[in-house]
Amino acid sequence: MQFKLPTPEEREAKQAEMDARAIELTQREGGTVHPLLFVDKYSGEFVTGFMKEPPIMTKLMILDKGLGSAFSTCAGVLSLYMIEDESDRRLYKESSKSEDQVHYLGAISFMVELVRVSQDLMKKK
């Protein structure tokens, strides 16, 4: 099956749309919402979602367990922070299909990075 990947202009336009929606969702959810934008390498389609910023206690719990196990810890709490009605289920549901796992792992990686950024900010204080 033939497909084409989005052009940089299409990706930029989609990111702008996602950023605008994240601002709306931040107001609705009462806390920072981050857009997640991936491209499915099998179909070329956008895989999109929105994640609420985890509270500091969740970040501390992940840090307490150590960043060495951050991926499994984040996987355990990921669905609590994904806005399911605004997100592709491949970002927050485990799947046995390898083509879906890459998106799930991408969302987990994003959450780990949020924790790492928080840790870096704490070190600078």
Report the biggest beta sheet as strand number plus sense, adding barrel if it closes.
2 strands, antiparallel
Succession of helices and strands: HEEHHH
- Uncertain residue ranges: none
The number of E-state strands comes to 2
Radius of gyration from CA coordinates: 15 Å
Q: Please report which band the strand proportion falls in: under 5%, 5-15%, 15-25%, 25-35%, 35-45% or over 45%.
A: 5-15%
What does the secondary structure layout of this molecule look like, with pairings?
Elements: H1 8-29, E1 33-39, E2 46-52, H2 56-65, H3 70-81, H4 98-124
Antiparallel strand pairs: 1-2
Helix pairs in contact: 2-4, 3-4
Descriptive notes:
There is one protein chain. By secondary structure, the chain is mostly helical. The protein has one domain. Helix content is 57%, strand content 11%. The longest helix has 27 residues. It is globular, with a radius of gyration of 15 Å. The N and C termini lie far apart (53 Å).
